Each structure stands twice: as structure tokens, then as C-alpha cells.
Amino acid sequence: MKTLLSFLIVLLVTSTVSAANWPPNTASKVANNALEYPTKLDPVNTSLEEMLNNGASIISSYVAEDGPIITIKAKKKYVICLLKGAGTGSDQNIATSKCYAMN
Distance between CA 90 and CA 88 in Å, rounded? Predict the structure, then answer.
């Protein structure tokens, strides 16, 4: 039992430390650190729901601090959508999505 508990503590500490190092600090001078480049983010004036109903497919999803972030492929475009649920501590009573095309 003590061995299992020790293993879980080491695993928790290791995962917390490694998560704190990602992404690498761009201000630091670290070998093999990627440079930052401007990235196109064009607003998409279509809801996530409508894009999915028209055949878009989900590539990835992540639950961020402010709500889910979904990446989809719609036709030949990769689109990132930020979702805001209804009743998330504000007077908003319907879920909304804000989407940006990355290419």
C-alpha cells in the first residue's frame, strides 16, 4: 500500500512539473526552442453547430479554463472554436461559439 501511495505521489509531482514547462518560455534562450511566427486567424461567421451539420469533422478538443476549445476541419480549412456555455457565471442564457480559420 505504501509503495502504491509513493508511486502516485511521484507521478503527480512529475506530471505537475512537466506541465509547468510546456509550452517553453519564448523569452528564454533554450537550444532548439521554436521561433514565434505570425499566424492567420480569420473570423468565421458561422456557428460550430452549423459547420458540424454541414460535414465538418472534429480534430481535437480540450476543456480550457474558460470553456471547451474545439479544432475542426471544415472542407479544406482548419478552424479553432472557443465555446461558451449557457449560465457560466454571467447573464448569458444560450451557448455560443467563436471560431477562427487558421488557413
Answer: 6
- The strand pairing partners of 99, in sequence order, are 44, 81
Count of the separate structural domains present in the chain: 1
Does a structural domain hold residue 35?
no
Cα Rg of the chain, angstroms: 19
Check whether 59 has a pLDDT greater than 90.
yes
**Which position has the higher pLDDT, 34 or 7?**
34
43 near 100, Cβ under 8 Å? yes
**Would you say residue 10 has pLDDT above 50?**
no
Give a yes or no: residue 55 inside a domain. yes
10 found inside a domain:
yes
Q: Could you tell me the residue range of the domain that residue 92 belongs to? A: 2-29+40-101
Q: CA distances (Å), 29 to each of 7, 19, 37, 66, in order?
A: 34, 19, 17, 31
Helix spans in the chain (H): 2-20, 48-53
